[in-house]
Structure formats: structure tokens, C-alpha cells
Design a protein that fits this description.
By secondary structure, this protein is of the alpha/beta class. Helix content is about 50%, strand content about 20%.
Length: about 280
């Protein structure tokens, strides 16, 4: 299949009360593992790259790898820009075939955020590409994005309703107490706030900072309206641990075709776990 856009898969998830999982990818090995696992489980897949990953690996390489993987797949595979920080980034991603865009103006004053998002929506919708935006600020650290607890703020339901109506976005990332990275203590999510926002807006809702959340809490967020959740940190840790363990046990090994294998298996195990947790298996 060619790369899929995300509007239909997210609406399906919203209607059927499961969650599409947006997984962070970094290189050939992680993309291969993501697509193979989602294909085996018959689940929709969003492969996500942050600006930091794009700058590191190169947009031409990333888009080519994901395009080839998607053509070999029989499930819908989308290529998503996560936390896009500028119009220039959005233009580059659209030019290289990205099929989903997140523009993050959550750090801006409200009217400036609305203006930026409207401009991105107009540009992306000309290419039939869906747009995700964020209202409220999610704490923690992901790549170069860092928001401390003092800056983090929850999404206001009235503002969310106005934001969706004025911008025309296709999905909304909300702040209900999640954080990027792993949690230092027991996460406390405002589930009643999630329910209220879900009642106020009709588009699919997105949960950033899902790494490290208890399974029961994730299931409850899906039940209350989350149609997409993001996983990044919880993938990087087992990949690194698998790589370290293999090299520790095989100190003389120099062939990356061998020493990446255990890291891929560890990464893939988390991917399968999250797809099943989200109820996304068997949907396609």
C-alpha cells in the first residue's frame, strides 16, 4: 500500500473505541520492526518522527524508508511529523510525502496558536493530509522539547471547543496530566476533564506522554475518548537495553546485522504490547 492519511483511521478508532498508536521511529531497524509487528497484528500504524529525529537522520532517508515499508504492507501506515515547530518544517515534510502533521503552537499565546494552526491546516488539507494540534502544555522532556512543571498546564474545555471550531484541525492533543518521558511518581490524570473535553469536541483526541502509564489508566482514557496515543520513551529504553546486553555478552561482535537483532526484538515486544493494550489489533 501507499502511505495512508490518518483522518479515516482516527475516526474509526474514535467510533470503535480503540486507539491508534503513534510510535517513535529513528532508523531502518525501528521502522522495519514497527511495520512487521503491526502487520502481524493487523493494526493501523502511525510512524512518528520528531524534528530532532528528522535533523539527525535526514528527511530524505526517513521518508524513503517508510515509503518502502508502507508499500510492502497490507495495513494502513502513516508517516507523521510529531511536534512540528515551524511552517518551514511543515512544508519540508509535506514535500517529502508525510501523510500526517502535528503543528505544536501550545507555547504561544492563544490567538497566535490559532493563527499558526489555521495556516498549517490550509496548507496540509490541500494535500489531503490531516493535522493534529495541541492545546495546553504537556510537561517532561522529549528530544529537544522540554516543559517543566511550572509551564505545564491543562487543556480548558471551552477553549478546546473554540480552538477546534476556528482552526479546522483533524485531531486534538490535550493536556490532562501526562508528561513526556518516564514518570517519576504515580501519574495523576484528570479523567473527568478528558470526559468533558470529549463531550465538547467531535474530533479524535490524542494522548501524548503515554509511556509509563499503567495499563488500566490507558484503557480508561480510551474508554473516555482517546483515539490516538503516543509512545516514544518506552521504546527507546528496551532498544538500548537489548543492544547493551548483546554487546556485553558478545564483546567481540562487530557486525551490526547481528547486534541490532536483540535490540529490535526488545523494541518489537513493547510495540506488540501497546498495540494490544490500545485494542488496535485485528482492526484491518
Amino acid at each position: 500500500m501507499t502511505l495512508a492519511t490518518t483522518q479515516d483511521m482516527l475516526k474509526k478508532a474514535q467510533l470503535e473505541r480503540f486507539s491508534v498508536v503513534g510510535f517513535a521511529a529513528y532508523n531502518l531497524e525501528t521502522v522495519q520492526t514497527l511495520v512487521a509487528t503491526a502487520e502481524r497484528l493487523r493494526a493501523p500504524l502511525m510512524i512518528q518522527t520528531t524534528p530532532g529525529t528528522i535533523d539527525h537522520a535526514g528527511i530524505e532517508y526517513l521518508s524513503a524508508i517508510v515509503n518502502i515499508a508502507a508499500r510492502k504492507a497490507t495495513i494502513p501506515v502513516a508517516l507523521h511529523l510529531d511536534h512540528g515547530e515551524s511552517m518551514e518544517r511543515v512544508r519540508a515534510c509535506l514535500a517529502h510525502g508525510y501523510t500526517s502533521i502535528m503543528i505544536d503552537g501550545s507555547h504561544l499565546p492563544y490567538e497566535e496558536n490559532v493563527g499558526l494552526v489555521k495556516e498549517v491546516v490550509a496548507m496540509a488539507h490541500r494535500e489531503d493530509v490531516g493535522v493534529e494540534a495541541e492545546l495546553g502544555r504537556i510537561g517532561g522532556v522529549e528530544d529537544e522539547l522540554s516543559v517543566d512543571e511550572r509551564e505545564a498546564r491543562y487543556t480548558d474545555p471551552d477553549m478546546a471547543q473554540d480552538f477546534v471550531a476556528r482552526t479546522g484541525i483533524d485531531s486534538l492533543a490535550i493536556a490532562i496530566g501526562t508528561a513526556h518521558g518516564m514518570y517519576k511518581g504515580e501519574p495523576q490524570l484528570d479523567l473527568d476533564l478528558l470526559s468533558t473535553i470529549s463531550q465538547r469536541v467531535s474530533i479524535p483526541l490524542v494522548l501524548h506522554g503515554a509511556s509509563g502509564l499503567p495499563d488500566a489508566l490507558i484503557r480508561e482514557t480510551i474508554r473516555r475518548g482517546i483515539a490516538k496515543m503516543n509512545i516514544a520513551t518506552e521504546l527507546k529504553i528496551p532498544f538500548a537495553e537489548g543492544l547493551r546486553a548483546y554487546l556485553h555478552d558478545h564483546p567481540d561482535e562487530s557486525d551490526p546485522r547481528k547486534y541490532f537483532r536483540q535490540a529490535q526484538q526488545a523494541y518489537g515486544a513493547v510495540v506488540e504490547e501497546k498495540i494490544r493494550l490500545a485494542g488496535a489489533q485485528g482492526r484491518y
